[in-house]
Specification:
By secondary structure, this protein is of the alpha+beta class. The chain has two domains: 70 residues, no CATH class; 153 residues, Jelly Rolls, CATH 2.60.120.380. It is built from four helices and eleven strands, in the order αβββββββββββααα. The strands form two sheets. It has a six-stranded mixed β-sheet with strand order 1-3-11-5-9-8. A hairpin with a 4-residue loop joins strand 8 and strand 9. The longest helix is centred in the last third of the chain and has 19 residues.
């Protein structure tokens, strides 16, 4: 049991002390969250979370929903995996909610809601290295906005022309990682690296170390019934 605790502490320290740490909790996307009725629902929009989305003719739109109390701050980022061919790929994001201005969109939205549109056409891409996974991204936009009215809100990301590609949408600033996240690191790492199309590339030292610690900790967690 003492060994297991030491491994958990070592893994946690590695996560917390990674350079330029900005890890989001991964929200799995199966391509079906394309309408208000099928939107991802976030219980805590302040928690740092990311959805990796692949645009296809069947899944151009990505819908995320959450309920906001008065004065709720909404922070979000729009980005792309740094993959050849996506350098000029520019999705659009719209925040829908009560009390926002009327918007004209190429799809239906819930009655009574207005919106704020961000067209990222022409936006410069800021390069970002994700040290936890050994991947690289381009950040197109980030915004922190106070929502003045309570109610149901949606964030919708889509490509205006429906051009196939990839983008990700991150919501929330607060990072919160625990034992479960470290145990699941190997599974998350595989998803993230496949999405960035670097699954066959050599990984840097940090993700290799975290992967080893995660597997060791999972072994001891299973041994002692901690999962």
């Amino acid at each position: 049991m003492k060994t297991c605790k030491c491994l958990w502490l070592l893994a946690l320290l590695a996560f917390l002390n990674a350079p330029q740490a900005a890890a989001h909790r991964l929200v799995p996307d199966d391509g079906t969250h394309t309408t208000p009725e099928t939107a991802f629902f976030l219980d805590d929009p302040g928690l740092s979370q990311v959805v990796y989305h692949t645009v296809s003719p069947q899944s151009n739109q990505l819908w995320i929903a959450f309920d906001a109390p008065p004065g709720q701050n909404l922070y979000w980022q729009l980005g792309l995996p740094a993959i050849r061919g996506l350098e000029n790929y520019r999705p659009t994001v719209v925040v829908l909610g009560p009390g926002l201005p009327a918007v004209d969109l190429p799809f239906l939205i819930p009655e009574g809601l207005g919106g704020i549109i961000l067209d990222s056409t022409g936006s410069p891409a800021e390069s970002f290295n994700e040290h936890f996974t050994g991947t690289r991204d381009w950040i197109l936009h980030e915004e922190d906005r106070a929502l003045t009215q309570p109610g149901r809100y949606y964030i919708v990301a889509y490509h205006p022309d429906g051009t196939p590609g990839k983008f990700w949408l991150a919501v929330g600033r607060r990072e919160a990682f625990g034992l479960r996240d470290i145990l699941d690191y190997a599974d998350v790492l595989a998803v993230v690296r496949q999405y960035h199309e670097v699954q066959d590339d050599t990984m840097p030292i940090l993700p290799n170390l975290l992967l080893l610690l995660s597997k060791l900790l999972r072994f001891f967690a299973n041994m002692f019934g901690l999962r």
